[in-house]
Amino acid sequence: MSFFVAYHPSYIHSVPSTHRFPMEKYGLLYQQLQYEGMLEKADFLKPELADLEIVRRVHSEAYLEKLLKLNCSPREQRVSGFVHTNELILRELRIMEGTRLCAEMVKNGGAALNIAGGTHHAFTDRGEGFCLLNDQAIAARWLLDKQLFKRILIVDLDVHQGNGTAEIFQNVAEVFTFSMHGAANYPIHKEKSDKDVALETFLDDKAYLDILTRELGSVMESFEPDFIFYQCGVDILESDKLGKLKVTQNGIRLRDEWVLHRAKEKNIPVVCSMGGGYSKDVRDIVNAHMHVFRLAHQLFSN
User: Fold this and answer.
1) Which of 159, 177, 187, 251 is least buried, going by the fewest C-beta atoms within 10 A?
2) Three-state secondary structure call for residue 36
3) 3-class DSSP state for residue 154?
4) Distance, CA of 123 to CA of 120 (rounded, Å)
5) Which residues pair with 106 in a beta bridge?
6) Cα gap 259→253, rounded to integer Å
7) Which residues constitute the domain of residue 78?
């Protein structure tokens, strides 16, 4: 089998109760994957805590020490979105390992999905927007350090720009950062990705997919990646409280289908992290995320 999913109960249970929504989606996705028969409990990857030496390859020693010792200032905690606790920091380290473990599992091909992750607002030396450490950046750096791959493409289709990821890899030629996001959305100050595609407010399915296939298709042809990280946030959904776009559930399915089919056709391993989703009804969030799991299982489970 070349289809893997990483999950740990701490993904939700270590989050302060005031932030459980929409974090509860993680547990619901875990249950839904079993309900639909894609995986049994024993089949899930169960990440331990990330090796701090691997984390240090991306995040500064000073910042990591502040996190581990709970020394971030009240303002830094507010910007990160969380009141920091030891349980929260350990959760973050487990999410980091979940994505790195996914990358290791598909080094010879296939698809792996972390039920959490997509923490693209974490910079080298600080956290923002509910992101303390950057899972895809840590996993990508690990792949490069191990000399397993030479050209890594990070496809970020969350409605918010992957500003932390852009900053981390701004001078790393082996990693191409692609971010397609709402022009009028958070963050106000955008970093410079290798390719930024800023979207107008209220864009619908057809316009969104036309832009995606043109812009990302061009990048894939010119950069020729040998590994893909896919940040597949579902906050582009029309029901999302923060998204400002008009993409439907079918539009998200077609988006995920296009990305995964390109990976399959070109025999490129792909690791997906779920990213954001803030619809009022958690069922809309779970339904939107489930598209990528179903497609990955269909394409890569045999």
Assistant:
1) 187
2) coil
3) strand
4) 8
5) none
6) 10
7) 3-300
Question: Domain containing 251 — which CATH number?
Answer: 3.40.800.20
Give, as one character, the DSSP assignment of residue 41: G
Count the domains in the chain: 1
The predicted model scores a pTM of 0.96
DSSP state of 111: E
**Tens digits of residue pLDDT in 72-94:** 999 999 999 999 999 999 999 99
Report d(CA 84, CA 80) in Å as an integer: 9
How does DSSP classify residue 50?
P
pLDDT, tens only, 57-76: 999 999 999 999 999 999 99
Number of CB atoms found within 10 A of residue 86's CB: 11
Q: What is the pLDDT of residues 253-263, one digit of tens each?
A: 999 999 999 99
Residue 95 three-state SS: helix
pLDDT score recorded for residue 13: 75
